[in-house]
Amino acid sequence: MRPTRLGPPDAGIQATAPAGPAATARITSLTVHDIRFPTSRELDGSDAMNPDPDYSAAYVVLGTDAPDGLAGHGFAFTIGRGNDVQAVAIAALRPYLIGRSVAELCADPGSLSRDLVGDSQLRWLGPEKGVMHMAIGAVVNAVWDLAAKRRGEPLWRFLAHAEPEWLVSQVDFRYLTDALTPGEALALLRAGRDGLAAREAGLRDRGYPAYTTSPGWLGYSDAKLTRLAEEAVAAGFTQIKLKVGADLADDLRRCRTARAVVGPDIRIAVDANQRWDVAEAITWTRALAEIDPYWIEEPTSPDDVLGHAAVRRAVAPVRVATGEHVQNRIVFKQLLQAGAVDVLQIDAARVGGVNENLAVLLLAAKYGVPVCPHAGGVGLCELVQHLSMFDYLALSGTTENRAIEYVDHLHEHFVTPVEIRDGHYTAPTAPGFSAELRPGTLTTYSYPDGTFWTADRAARTTEHTAAHKEEQG
């Protein structure tokens, strides 16, 4: 285990490197943007716990002095207020990046992950959880984006064809060895290479299964739910998801409407977004059983491992799914050890980036639990498709009972947006992690001074002034 770094590295230290501008390239900048979209105005993303989300990204760009001109892109997803706090947390990591060798970082992203997670003073803010951990994830993901671009491959292929020994070196096994040892992880990855070429050919041809949450936001009318559910089935999706948890009678009506629209053969998952206590989760899920829900998602606090286990025992055969708010690999480990989940949901931007998600995928493979990632936010579809495709190609070897969440929001803001064909994610072909936002998006939606927010503020001021004058007679 590497020693813990006691403070930020000296940006002026020059590591030994081969001669030549590419070999001696350094990280020269870390730029953070507070990007927010007004999704609450159409109730996109609304659920029982989060009724008015404005999908947002604390977006980081790593610049270098390499002659190839490539940059690394990553972000932490938030839902509006607090995105500025997340952006400041990312900016606090700048001293750990500036001056580092690009070649060394891309050859070993785990070195940065260990340095950031292991800093004793920053660690106190977690440890390994919350805003600081999400900041680490954003920066680590930006390094992986840069590494894949320099290799000229999409991240899914970069990972799938990496040597198993190297992938194991990227995982922090501290706190995991009672459930998964490095040797077991290596064996899983070596076994996962069997048949990789055939699976890759199939992936390129067919894609990876998706399910859609687009019809299911809690604020949508029954008419909009019906229209979007019909469109989902016509588009080839075999599973949709509905938000529940605010009012049982309303949930039953909406779920019955959806079942009548999609018929008996389309899976309907339901998502409570942490709304219930354990007993309430059991009662509510049993009441919804008449529409044959495929899973109940986040039935209670994401930190309540034993609560999830109790719900799972009580509501079977309805499956229990959770993970989008799980803070780190240690909680994922406990969920698996306790038999608390039927479906594990990773989030590309919640934990400490690709390295920690590799650990979670390995744990899920060890315990034989399918992974169906969360992707209900800006850019999360773009990121997590790479992780699921790697899992299929080089670890689990199957897409049975696996699907990536899809929501049809905000993809147009990305340089390489996701592509859905016949209810499947098309395998990305562009090098990198698909995280780069378009320059026009930064100009328009940077908060608070982007052109959209400036115009919006002016319009609201005008409305307020007009209303005040009307009150004055």
From TrEMBL:
SUPFAM superfamilies tied to this protein: Enolase C-terminal domain-like, Enolase N-terminal domain-like
Residue ranges, annotated region (Disordered): 1-20
Source organism per UniProt: Streptomyces olivaceiscleroticus
InterPro entries assigned to the protein according to its UniProt record, in alphabetical order: Enolase-like_C_sf, Enolase-like_N, Enolase_C-like, L-fuconate_dehydratase, Mandel_Rmase/mucon_lact_enz_CS, Mandelate_racemase_C, Mandelate_racemase_N_dom, RHMD-like
Pfam family, one: MR_MLE_N
EC number(s) from the headed UniProt entry: 4.2.1.68
Record flagged with keyword Transcription regulation: no
Biased composition (Low complexity): 11-20
Keyword line: Lyase, Magnesium, Metal-binding
First-level EC class: lyase
Protein name (record): L-fuconate dehydratase
Necessary cofactors: Mg(2+)
Mandelate racemase/muconate lactonizing enzyme C-terminal domain segment(s): 222-318
